[in-house]
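User: I'll paste a sequence; please echo it back and then give the predicted structure.

Assistant: Echoing your sequence first, then the prediction.
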Amino acid sequence: MKYMKKKYITRKVMPSIIILFLMMSGIISINIKNTSSLSPLGNTNENYQLVSEEFGEDFSNFIKDNSFLKIYKEDSDILVRIGENNFRITNQSNITKQVEILVNNVREKINTVIKD
């Protein structure tokens, strides 16, 4: 029974978790790149007006950033803007440290399951 459970975890659950993690990290990195290129911090409307004047209405519709969630990556901080609310995540925050501890624990458990 123990062998069946371990086999199920290694063949079904682990690949699903890995694929989900890779997809989420890809989506987040794309969001960070789009946000930094389309709407630099604070001057989204100015950029939109400048582009619409320079290149015309067709291109201005392409560059308009209407996303509800924006992620700005600065030196060691991350600014998450959800609607009109801003959240700053630093490396020194308790949440970041707890997530790091959790990820390390999960990584260790995965390694022990794979080795057994």
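The mean pLDDT is 77. Helices lie at 2-38, 44-55, 57-63, 94-115.
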